[in-house]
Amino acid sequence: LEGGNGITRVNAGNTKRVERITMSTPMHLSPEGPRHLIIVVRADPIICGHSTEARNLAEAAMAAGFDDVHIVSYPIELLQNSGLPLKPLNAIEPYSEGITVLRPDRVGGYKVLDGGQLHGMSGSIVDLLAQQHGTSYLMDLYLVPHGKVVLDAARTATHLPNRPDLITIGEAVGSDITDVVRQAIADDALGAACTVLADYLDHDLPVAVSDYTRDLIVAAGSQVDDRLGTSFADQLDQRVTVSYPAIDAKLYLDCDKRSNDIATTCAKRGLKPGKFLLFLSRLAPAKGVDDLITAYRHSDAYGRMPLAICGNGPAEQELRRLAAENPNIDFFTDVSDADKGLLMHACAGYCLPSKPRKEFIETFGIAVAEKLLAGGLGPVITTTTGGLPEATGDHCLYHEAGDVRSLRDAIDLAIAMKPEERATLNAEGRHYAMQFDRHAVLSKLIARQTASAAALAV
């Protein structure tokens, strides 16, 4: 591990700047008549960025004066048998009054081979719409298969005698479209590619979680157009806008005032504030934790401060084998949402060495934005993979994705930085990340839908 490729804070000009918001204040909407929000998502206890985003949009909607919010998701037993990474059930934070989580059972007997669960979810939404008056926003996070659930419910609602004014919003993370299109083209199953793109465009407001994601989706449309002579790319380019994932900024900003809670949260894991490196995300090959373990062992931090690896996922056992029960490397699978920000604030460096892989590319980087909001003196150490630069705003230490030497050098630089350098870097990062606050994201989303509807009416 000699040499290295160096580290830079400056992205190569590919970060698209957006307006910054410096206040974490509910944006009160003043609609004519009742407003309702229904979100279809893989909700808690699944460890997923969309799960957290759904919670934040729900809470922001209640703060903005919506009459009620319903989150439509999957039965707990189904999730436990799915193989997806889950939080402990006792670690799930309660929702505010007015927010209801629905977990409909599947519909149909043994003769219904598949689709029964999705049909049950669509049916529960129709039941809600039949009782609602005013305006109902019906949103799916992760298009496949949730877009089908939303569109099926919206189509059925046209038969209701007193149906509400219904607005559908489809949020794509990227892989929910691009992976389907890629596989469909490889298998010469172009109908499947057309279906997912058509479903996306059938929403009143199709949005993507980053500019990077939006570009991927338009490119996927071009691939289908080249094969079939369709015009998906032009339609996607004209209609798809960006809505960054919604984060509860206040939860992280408050870390500055919670020194006792930080000390307690660290102590129960054998950690000391300012004296450990942190990885906190899903344990999957694309997250680069294998590179982090190797780089850490050869860094100046090794032996001086432990590496805390927090999360779970499909790569957990392999990563534990790679760590080989090293006393300097700790694994924690019990980190709640309440503890997450405290650990991010307390660490000497937050590492997300994400690297592009066929099965996953980081399309935004919610955890990075959360760390920027949490503050503290530990810098973010990450890569320019996918949409990560949009989450960091370049207020971080970059290393080359998949390059262990470069990652080692970034760790060494992080712990060698002067306190005032760290403070400046993180203050700028927090200011940048305020645009991802949930109240601002929801307000922009509703305003964008209103503008889109007005444009279509002309």
How would you sum up this structure, described in words?
It is a single chain. The chain is an alpha/beta fold and 458 residues long. The chain is 45% helix and 12% strand. Strands 3-2-1-4-5-6-7 form a seven-stranded parallel sheet, sandwiched between helices. Strands 10-9-8-11-12-13 form a six-stranded parallel sheet, with helices on both faces. Helix 2 (76-80) links the parallel strand 2 (68-72) and strand 3 (99-102). The radius of gyration is 22 Å and the shape is globular. The chain starts with 34 loop residues before the first strand and ends with a helix.
Defining key terms:
alpha/beta; 45% helix; 458 residues; disordered N terminus; single chain; 18 helices
Q: How would you sum up the major sheet?
A: 7 strands, parallel
Report the portion of residues in β strands.
5-15%
Number of alpha- plus pi-helical segments: 18
Shape category? globular
Mean pLDDT: 91
DSSP strand tally: 13
Radius of gyration: 22 Å
Binned, the helix content reads 40-55%
Instruction: State the end-to-end CA separation.
Output: 62 Å
Question: Uncertain runs with pLDDT below 50, 5 residues or more?
Answer: 1-30
Q: Helix/strand/pairing class, anyone?
A: alpha/beta
How would you write the strand order of the largest sheet?
3-2-1-4-5-6-7
Short description:
This protein is α/β, with parallel strands linked by helices and 458 residues long. It contains 18 helices and 13 strands.
Question: Topology of this protein?
Answer:
Elements: E1 35-40, H1 49-63, E2 68-72, H2 76-80, E3 99-102, H3 116-131, E4 135-141, H4 143-157, E5 165-172, H5 175-186, H6 190-201, E6 205-208, H7 211-228, H8 232-239, E7 241-242, H9 249-253, H10 259-267, E8 277-280, H11 289-297, E9 307-310, H12 316-323, E10 329-332, H13 337-346, E11 349-352, H14 366-374, E12 380-382, H15 388-392, E13 397-398, H16 404-416, H17 419-433, H18 438-457
Helix pairs in contact: 1-18, 3-4, 5-6, 5-7, 6-7, 6-8, 7-8, 10-13, 11-16, 14-17
